[in-house]
Amino acid sequence: MDADCDSSSRPVFELIRQLPRCQVSATGEIDYDASDPALMLRIGDNAAQVMATMHRGTAAIGLLLANASPEIETRSLSADVVADLGFLLAELADLAAQCDLIATSCRRATADYLPLVLRARVEPVDGNSPKS
Predict the structure, then answer these.
(1) 51 near 93, Cβ under 8 Å?
(2) In the chain, what are the domain boundaries?
């Protein structure tokens, strides 16, 4: 990722920054229903983007490993490197799974949320039909 990118194009950074702003239940879990719906929308979007990035990245690493098999057989690529990549892939898969759970929970909690900007367009004004 380009170091000059602004934080809006960095979903992992944004997700980590946003998660502490959530309301938490007595059991320590995110309380999606009690948290700010606008925040939940942003967290859900960022979690979905992180998950997609993890899937694309793990697929790319898998292709690299498949094409590196001659180097592994000749031992020019250390078995430790392959093992470390395996551990990385396992962690990335766990992160992607958690992001999927977060994104799904955020979508469920905000299914009926209508931001003020959109609400002004669809709510009747003085009993008249919605603004267009």
Answers:
(1) no
(2) 8-109
